[in-house]
Write a structure and sequence with these properties.
alpha/beta, seven-stranded mixed beta sheet, Aldehyde Dehydrogenase, Chain A, domain 1, 478 residues, six-stranded mixed beta sheet, 24 strands, single chain, 16 helices
Length: 478
């Protein structure tokens, strides 16, 4: 069960100045708990404390940082069911998917614990000419300083973890703004961190509204801002961020190519998961599916049959695969896009119905033109669009015909086609024999074009949260 209310955290300390943020069960709409909304004064206190903690965090030995991360792993493991249940309620995430996200939360902190003690440097001989004889450079990574993090609603635990865990591993104090729709996961992370002996000011976790959140982006004392969310918001924040380093993990309309030699049974199973898990509310959800004409009809029949049988309902039910979308507004937007595509000549092969405001069927469509929102924009819901191809290179060009470039998937057994796809697809990551929705928490993750800037994944985030510092030693030559 959830508590009646949760505190926020300013400079490691739990405070409850108000209970203005109401959190609702996304399936039945019931009020389930409350949390504070941070005011501008709380955010100022948090930033000042983070800046004051920079030296202490930088001097924290690697084994101490590892101990903190390992304590988090232990506590998250003990509280596994509580964390999963909170996701189920606040995000409407089916319980099976919620357990998967808690597992990834634990994995992410565990990986960070490993990396905390192996931040490597470099020794660079400089004697490549007579002028530099006797000189050697020593290079190390140092923490960048106080960081600002803004995390989204769809993975309240794991996407917050991908900012928090590398910051702790690197020795960077931080302030975190979780999504107001789903703040509980981040506040539970804060509760565990508050039980450690991190230096005062090492972390603050502050749900707040947009009117009070400008400092997360604009305050010059913050050395890095990492944002995960929609492209429109992300690029706007970058324009306001000033001189600080910016990392953006934004949206996509991920495509999957299914070539004629693919194992259709396997491809259908993986694409069903990739398109419809947690109601398609993932930036790497399978949205566009390009199928070779030789297998198109067979693939379509199998996919539609599977999608039509997915169980929709209460996310607490073990059998539920499709839960509610995050809000009636988002569900209505996507249902509107489906209706727009239908009016323009597209065919609904299954689904397309919206019930109870937020419950949208798993929907498969074909004959959707590229200028329709369902192809051109990020659907962020349980909808995928089928099209056919005859030429593999043409399929690659069609995938690239998008302003997004996060991840893509290709089902082929042809090594040369796999290499061609890797060479030519304009994406941050390519999955061969799997869907673009797959991610391991240690790998580099991020996109190109409107899909973002920089990379997540523990060691890659740590690189962003650090700066190179070199020292040159001269030995006089006789």
């Amino acid at each position: 069960m959830l508590k009646k209310s949760y505190p926020m955290y300013v400079a490691n300390q739990a405070i409850t100045p108000n209970e203005d943020l109401e959190i609702f069960d996304k399936f039945n709409g019931e009020l389930v708990t409350k949390a504070p909304l941070a005011e501008a004064s709380h955010i100022e206190d948090a930033i000042a404390a983070a800046v004051a903690a920079e030296e202490a965090m930088a001097e924290l030995p690697a084994y101490k940082r590892q101990e903190v991360l390992r304590y988090c792993v232990s506590e998250f493991t003990k509280r596994f069911d509580e964390l999963a249940y909170s996701l189920c309620l606040e995000a409407g995430k089916p319980i099976v998917d919620a357990r998967g996200e808690v597992t990834r939360l634990i994995d992410t902190f565990d990986i960070a614990a490993e990396e905390a003690v192996r931040i490597h440097g470099e020794i660079m001989p400089l004697d490549r000419t007579a002028r530099t004889a006797g000189y050697t450079a020593y290079i190390k990574r140092v923490p960048i300083g106080a960081c600002s993090f803004i995390s989204p609603f769809n993975f309240p635990l794991n996407l917050a973890a991908h900012k928090v865990a590398p910051a702790l591993a690197m020795g960077c104090p931080f302030i975190l703004k979780p999504a107001s729709l789903t703040p509980i996961g981040a506040l539970l992370i804060g509760e565990v961190l508050s039980q450690t002996d991190l230096p005062k000011g090492a972390f603050s976790i502050l749900p707040t509204n947009r009117n009070n959140s400008q400092a997360f982006t604009e305050d010059p004392r913050l050395k890095l801002m990492s944002f995960t969310g929609s492209p429109g918001v992300g690029w706007n924040l970058k324009n306001k961020a000033g001189k600080k380093k910016v990392v953006l993990e934004l949206g996509g309309n991920a495509a999957c190519i299914v070539d004629s030699d693919a194992d259709l049974g396997d491809a259908v199973e993986r694409i069903i998961h990739g398109a419809f898990y947690q109601s398609g509310q993932s930036c790497i959800s399978v949205q566009r599916i390009l199928i070779h004409s030789d297998i198109y009809d067979d693939f379509k029949e199998r996919l539609v049959s599977k999608a039509s049988g997915l169980v929709k309902g209460d996310p607490r039910d073990e059998k539920t695969f499709i839960g509610p979308m995050i809000s009636e507004k988002e569900a209505g937007r996507l249902h509107g896009w489906i209706e727009e595509a239908k009016a323009a000549g597209a065919t609904v092969l299954c689904g397309g119905k919206l019930e109870n405001g937020k419950m949208l069927d798993a929907t498969v469509m074909e004959n959707v033109s590229m200028d329709q929102n369902l192809c051109a924009e990020e659907a962020f819901g349980p909808v995928c669009v089928l099209s056919k191809f005859t030429d593999f290179d043409a399929a690659i060009r069609e995938v690239n015909n998008s302003k997004f470039g996060l991840q893509a998937g290709v089902f082929t057994r042809d090594l040369y086609k796999a290499q061609t796809a890797w060479d030519k697809l304009e994406v941050g990551g390519l999955m061969i024999g799997d869907v673009p929705s797959w991610r391991a928490d240690q790998m580099p993750y991020g996109g190109v074009k409107d899909s973002g800037l920089g990379r997540e994944g523990i060691i890659y985030a740590m690189e962003d949260m650090s700066e190179l510092r070199h020292m040159v030693v001269r030995i006089p030559q006789k």
